[in-house]
Amino acid sequence: MSIPLSLMDPLTATIVVVSLMLLILLAFGSPIIYTGWKQRQQYHQLSAIHTSLDDAIPGEAVAVSGTVSSQSRTIDSPYRSQRCALALWDTARLSRGQGPQWFLEASGVMADELLITLDTEHVPVTGQLRQRRVLTTAQALSSALGVDVNSTLAFIDTELSQSGFEKQFTPTEDLTETYRAHNRDIGFDRPTRDSSNMLGRLLAEQLTPHNTVRYRELTFQGGDEITIIGEKTDDGISVVETGGTHPIISSESLSNRLSRYRREYVLRLYGYPAFCLLFSALIAYPTGGVPNANNVQFTLYI
């Protein structure tokens, strides 16, 4: 059975139009809402963890904030070969198939015998300090959509987006041996081409070309402020997953991270649906009053 909207009373027609528009907008924005929901989960997880080693027992999640100790052994960063106590890195490829989007190929953490200094106490950091993650196609898509905010090593993207070294290579540019060796190490077959046509060269002056590869790294030197969330051990902290709480290595304090997560999940989880509702209502009320249902040209099927 079908009912033309023009035969409905204005209030009913308005409700139908608003509902349909709202459902469409919510469907298109479902990744935004899902990301907000995941951030809300992580906000509550991080809010519940201990912020002092004295308050936690071995095996529980704890956040430790201090400085990277100068006693830590130094390592070479992956791209610049810069001596440092800790390095975070990632490799991503630009896709312009449906709008510009960076797809993460791999990311990782590099450190040796890391120490965090709290006043006069040196807290050893153990665990997977030379960990890396090479993404599958599904994981790369989730990362590009921002729906893996709770996954292992997802904190690296946040850190590298705020600061650090970045180098991009277009498909026609040659890589140095350092970058070629890195690609071989992570199993990344970089898309290349010999040259671009005239149109491609003109567009490259305005837009980053498709299949451009981006390399980013962030280094921590002795004395740099750092926050690590992990599992308390008998003599320090271990960078491993604890009861669903993923490890985090950050230059941002836990309180600042919680404030940011709360702000972002409120906007995504509650602000976006509220905007969709308001926008749908404005569309249904083009003149600010009761809509003219006689002008509606489609039929509602029930």
TrEMBL record:
UniProt entry keywords in alphabetical sequence: Membrane, Transmembrane, Transmembrane helix
Species of provenance: Haloquadratum walsbyi (strain DSM 16790 / HBSQ001)
Transmembrane segments: 12-34, 265-285
Protein origin, superkingdom: Archaea
Name of the protein described by the UniProt record: Uncharacterized protein
